[in-house]
Amino acid sequence: MRGVSVVVLLTLAVASGHLSVWNKGTYDCGYPDPNSDRPVWPLWQTDKWWWHSALDCKPNGTQSIPSGGSLALEFSSNKAHTSMGQGLLANPTQRPNPWPTGAVTAWGNLHASVYPDDIMGCALAIAYKSDRYSVTPKDFIVFSVVQDCPTKQLQTFQIPQMPACPSGGCQCTWVWVNKYHQSYMSPFACNVTNPNARLSVPTPQVPTDCTNGGSCVSGAKTPLFYGTPTQSFAPLVPIRDTIFQLSPRYKSTWGFNEGAQSVFPSRARAAAAVEKVEKEVYAFKPNSPSRIDVSVGPQMVGFDNPGGDIDNGYLTNVASANDCQTQCVNRTPALTGQCYAWSWNTQSKECWLKGVAFNPVSNPNMIAGTVNRVWVA
Ligand SMILES: *[C@@H]1O[C@H](CO)[C@@H](O)[C@H](O)[C@H]1NC(C)=O
Ligand SMILES: *[C@@H]1O[C@H](CO)[C@@H](O)[C@H](O)[C@H]1NC(C)=O
Questions:
Q1: Right CATH number for 1-267 from 2.60.40, 2.70.50, 2.60.120, 3.40.50?
Q2: Where found, per UniProt (predicted)?
């Protein structure tokens, strides 16, 4: 059901979930809702990690990336707990001490609070393209790493000297991974300020594991995009389910040293590489689906899908569970995840459309269901 108060929504988002970076460049379908948790959806539909299923969402501005400086970014599971909502939580720049175990910290750093092993580092990456639809995973260059992350709500990143973006700006993303092999992408529109005109854009390589004396990729690297193939892209790094110690992370064992990544070569040295990147840019054709196969999941009588309500997804006087389900099926566009689940109240005839299926909870007056949308290339 619709979480009308901030507290209710936060509880849901924190308990289920995960984090987004919040700044005016965030691709925020919940905009202008100050209580939005849209950028953290979908939570578990990891085939939709690309652009966090928010490619069609609009940002409300551009985040500056200060070349050669530092940048503090806010993380939260809900905009309410950011400077664009009700403000940051207490001591946002401090790592919780003592570290909470068995509970989720208030800003929702999820797995890491329960399993300290999940502090597997995070990073910022940039694609030197203004058009987000033309960006592919291999365009992103990791430029700043914090190994002890996510542990702080307000995290400072060290920024290397960087070349200028195209006039329309760049595309950036915050990336982090956890023990559950979930690879999170939290994209935002960005632009390099005070750029270094002598530097150029390298072609990043896919990082490799160098835990046991293997050789790390030393120069520019892509993020650790891994997991399930997406609707548009295959992952770059394979999952290693059985060997957690070797699974990908933003740590030195994958060639990611702490702090600013000085991976932007001087122009003379990089002329050949730049030419290659430009050719790839112009050769690229965005993917588009030939069709989207829609099917419905089983109707769960006596269950509610809590949380995850989409904008304008609260309907009254809906006669039946089938009608509520049809409303969900008809809610498009599928690629931005408009409706993936629904709940219908048998007594009040209210219908709630949801962008994500959280764990269904028992409720004698409710019927809940899901809608699957499979992208066919
Ligand atoms: C969008 O950005 C403008 C200009 O910075 C600001 O005044 C406005 O409050 C922002 N809107 C939202 C919903 O954040
Ligand atoms: C990005 O910054 C450059 C200066 O480096 C400026 O000319 C350009 O207008 C900016 N673009 C956006 C989209 O902010």
A1: 2.70.50
A2: Secreted
Give me the residue spans of the domains in the chain: 1-267, 269-376
Ligand 2 pocket member 165 (CB < 6 A): yes
With a 6 Å cutoff on the Cβ, whether 169 touches ligand 2 is yes
Nearest CA to ligand 1 atom 5: 61
Of 200, 198, 199, 217, nearest to 208 by C-alpha is 217
**Environment class of residue 28 by beta-carbon count within 10 Å: exposed (0-12), middle (13-18) or buried (19+)?**
buried
Predicted confidence (pLDDT) per residue in 171-213, tens digit: 999 998 876 666 788 999 999 999 999 999 999 999 988 877 7
Indicate if ligand 1 lies below 6 Å from the C-beta of 166: no
User: Do residues 376 and 291 touch, judged by C-beta distance below 8 A?
Assistant: yes
Query: What pLDDT digit, counting tens, does each position of 15-74 carry?
Result: 334 788 999 999 988 777 787 777 877 655 566 778 888 888 889 899 999 999 999 999
Q: Does domain 269-376 have CATH number 3.50.4.10?
A: yes
